[in-house]
Amino acid sequence: MNSKSEKISTEEDNSENLEEKVQVYNELKSKIEILDILFHPSENNVLNVALINGKLKIYDVSKAKKRLVSAQKIHKKSIRKISFPANNSNIVFTASKDKSIKLTDIKQESNILTLEDAHESPINCLVTIDNWLIASADDDGGVKIWDYRKKNACMESKSDCSDYISDLAVSNDKKILLATCGEGTLNAFHIRKKKLELQSELMDSELLCVGIMKGDRKVVCGTGEGVIDIFNYGEWGNISDRFPGHPSSIDCMATLSDNIVLTGCFDGNIRACHILPNRFVGVVGNHDGFPIHKLNLSSDKNVCASLCHDHKIKFWNVESLKNKNIDAQSKSKNKSLKNKKLTAKGKSENFFSDLVEDNEEDEDEINNSSDDESDDSEYSSSDESD
User: Fold this and answer.
1) What values do phi and psi take at 67, rounded to 5?
2) Is 256 left (phi over 0), alpha (psi -120 to 50) or beta?
3) CB atoms within 10 A of CB 5
4) What is the tens place of the pLDDT at every residue in 350-379?
């Protein structure tokens, strides 16, 4: 049996190759800080990129060269969020640090609507509700719902949250708007009644991101202490379960299916997590230790784009994870899998990997030590795009 030091060395030696193997497209590199990314709702290879200088860039990420499709200066200050309307993929909403929301025709490169001073504080969250409604939130806890055919908010909450809003999510039936807050609360707004339905108790840590899973039966929130807090849908007062194990804060997430959520962690790893039963499936990819800032899935959910603080966007193959389902009676492998890298097929390439993992677990019970398998893969280089 290999020693623990040999195991770590082997994993580090192979990490670069494993990382490159599951990348679908060459990574994008920017000289200017990127604040948000969003795939086109109908074109899986088109990515919208929001920049700190107020520009929106659109890339065809499937190309090896000449990937930039268009670049438009939309806001005076940084674009913090992008969102597409539900009924038109040729126009896009952008929210800015300059407190404005704009609707832009990305084909004609022309402005359609501007909501100046939409918030009293810089806007950092924006989500589409339906064909005509959008929701926005700001750095001081303000939440608004807009009918963008009008220029006035149809719902406004200023005092319910005392800290910044970190993320927004909308239920599939379009009745509930969820907002996670830096103070450590989950806030449920009733969209039709235009009011706060309930605010949760203060959690042990700030809530940084939110997703809805299990057919609108469960809500998952990433926290600053590396725990996924799980709520029963409609029971907003307190959590029903906790999924610990991330080594540091969960800064972003993307719900891949009713069972699988992808988490972007401060340690630079993107992990696939199975919810109820709570299991780590493995590491989809990493950014060499730099914190993950954003995750976004293509419309077919086969590709996950990850944005890091080093101004790089990487693209990961997650197709094999969409139908992943773990039996509640199966033995947990969280200790060994939470830092184990996945191949393009979502598992080790070793044909006997299941047997190896089972043998390793048996040895864990006897010797209180384990060995991770190493994978061989081909290396492919990436290009740069400004």
Assistant:
1) -85, -20
2) alpha
3) 8
4) 433 443 344 444 434 433 333 333 333 332
